[in-house]
Amino acid sequence: TTGPSLDPSNPLATAPVARPPRTVDGFAREYLRELNFGEGVALSRASQNDQYLALARTIRHYLMADWLETARRRRENPTKMVGYLSAEYLLGRQMGNALLATDLGAIADQALKSLGLDLRTLRAQEVEPGLGNGGLGRLAACFVDSLATMDVPCIGYGIRYEYGIFRQTFEGGRQVEVPDSWLSLGGPWEFPHPDRAVTVGFGGSTETYVEDAGDGSGRQVQRSRWVPAWNVLGVPYHYMVPGYQNGVVNTLRLWSARATQAFDLQIFNSGDYAAAVRAQTFAENISKVLYPEDSTPQGRELRLQQQYFFVACSLKDFIDRTLEKDFDLHRLHERIIFQLNDTHPVIAIPEMMRLLMDEHGMEWDEAWAVTQKCFAYTCHTLLPEALEVWPVELVGRLLPRHLEIIYRINEEFLETVREAFPGDELRVRRMSIIQDHPERAVRMANLATVAGVKVNGVAELHSQLLRDKVLPDFSEMWPDKFTNVTNGVTPRRFIRLANPTLSQLITDTIGVGWETKLERLESLEPYAEDEEFRERFAAAKQANKKRLRELLAVRDGIELPEHGMVDVMVKRLHEYKRQTLKLLHIVSLYEQIISGQVDKDSVVPRTFVFGAKAAPGYHMAKEIIYLINSVAATINADERVKGVLTVAFPANYNVTLANKLIPAADLSEQISLAGKEASGTGNMKFALNGALTIGTDDGANVEIRKLVGDDNFFLFGMDEPQVAALQAKGYVPSAVYESNPQLKRAIDLIASGHFTGGDRGLAATVVDDLLYNDRFMTLADFQSYIDVQGEVDEVYRDQERWTRSAILNVARSGFFSSDRSMKDYLRRIWMPTHD
Ligand code: CR1
Fold this sequence. Notes:
- The chain contains 32 helices and 25 strands.
- By secondary structure, it is of the alpha/beta class.
- It folds into three domains: about 15-75 and about 100-125, no CATH class; about 80-95 and about 130-485 and about 825-830, Glycogen Phosphorylase B (Rossmann fold); about 495-815, Rossmann fold.
- The strands form six sheets. Strands 1, 4, 7, 8, 11, 12, 13, 14, 18 and 19 form a ten-stranded mixed β-sheet that branches.
- The longest helix has 29 residues, at about 50-75.
- The chain is globular and about 95 Å long.
- It starts with about 25 loop residues before the first helix and ends in a 5-residue tail after the last helix.
- About 50% of the residues are buried.
- This is Alpha-1,4 glucan phosphorylase.
- InterPro entries: Glycg_phsphrylas, Glyco_trans_35, Pyridoxal_P_attach_site.
């Protein structure tokens, strides 16, 4: 057992946890103690990694009392909690955030100085936990941050991948993936609890048996149970999720897979070492590596194993360990709402049914009534190919009991559809949780929609399209089930930590406290007309640009010019996001200068910065990366455009780099094909850091534009209805190419091999796709994009006007705090009576 062992009458059992002194001297002593007793090294012998690890652990000491106290408070006064189920948490570095949350930055800095150490150097030692791919994973990290800051009881549940998102390197301009062994030098932020491991079954078969109903009636009931063929252990690792200077520390509980028996001793003794460790390797593979796919499903068995593994651990953890003992499970929904972050955790729904029925003796109807109140589903995509489906064959083999349950849920659900829409068998087929073509498979989004209390999209437009285009039959049947919660980002990490100069200016101007009440940024609005403020604002931007130049020089050996606009496009590499449109703009500018159509001196100097990882199996995305790097190398080496056009593509864009890049940006590129980007969250981070957006009418761009105003946002391109109309009419990209001379010259220059060492073949994949396929209508939006980029230049030439707009972007973007998103989730989904 793992229960407390100390007699509760012993005063030590309830004594408050010690808080280390918040003084420079106290911190220094705490640090030395950790270095000596924790790391087991003397200061004079400590490596930089020792120094970093000891510092991380020292900072933890300052959060510990709050962590244990938060847990005690929640245990003693149990209320409804949020169980955030997410296969990804893209956390970013922990140390800066922990120092900010504890407000220990200055103390730590001086304490380390007194020991001859440098805080910034040690902070730079941290390898960020990259346990996510992109927006979806980073969103989860922002949400748990906000919930802690708002003192909302929440456990974040996920997977402790041993290898996170791959480290991207470039070789000859091509992406090469290197494993991200983020834990190899120690994981000072985690608390493993191997004694609290949970067993998770897989495979095998189900059987039925008869037993007494147990209600005193003497009635016999038939029950089912699952007899798994193999199992693994889930070991919980706890991470602190500190609120912002509020004494609250919530928990992130990530599961790591272990073999149930380390290895088969008998085989080992017989000398077959490989066979002996095979079982162990097999089990531990489950949490070995994050699937590096962003918005395309990876139909691998291991992925379903990962999904089931972490939700099975999490549900068991909540019911057996977190919930009060003997709590009546018929009222489970009074204690928990599990938020399903996309379809990855949706297998939790049949798992909950199985637990309630097979392990806790409920009847089907009772279990279903409870389950239906315990889950809500967030959809993060509009790409039909990104909606996960799992082959029935696979689910049946891996999770036979769950498949039975899914079938029965579907049967009963389809009956209600037939009742509501008699004779409409086509509709029944569309809505079925099981699809028949191209193969029999479980539609996870349908399952989540049937079982969930609510289904939400992540921006207004996305939620609308979700209702109208992705799940129209469901929204017709249950209009009230559908709602919107526009994404948000945490101002603590993405303003305070990322942009100290702007943060200081904001605090000097409107006072403290905006970090948790971001709508207060609106009081900056009048300062757009204040010349002195504008000067300071522009100076902060310059300082951030300088910081970026210095970083890229050291990190990537990239030399950036001192002057000009910093034009940034950072996000996963995907065709729908249209990095190629950005590339065509650059190539077109370049072509116009070298061909003498445009005088170099009349061009607004720009530094174009890309950051993007491509999924390793996504061929086209990797070709685009290669082309961007090729264009960058050619342009940067060409004297004819020196100082006017510069292209930088630092490798391995991650949260750490984002924190340096975003505050330095003048222009934010949000140029997806309208109707494809569910929300975007980078777009919000840029606006909040005073970049102007050039963007399509897509995702949360729509809301950004509405809030900052048309004058402070560069809109271009087709909107979603226009896209749909063009699609219906028939889109012929080669016709656009033929009819637009500027576009033709840009594409021809690429096709000629100019950027690829004269080799036309090396550019052909991308060029041919643009000309003959162009699924995301890049060429259709080209001219509009070029025209509006002209307006961008014009405004930029008037620096006063630009700065005014940038200030208004900051002042009017307070809505995009993830604190506001959390309030919306609370009001619309989790606790509808909450205010
Ligand atoms: C969407 O593509 C959105 C994030 C967070 C992504 C992006 O537009 O901002 O989710 N979806 O909601 C995704 O990663 C797997 O799907």
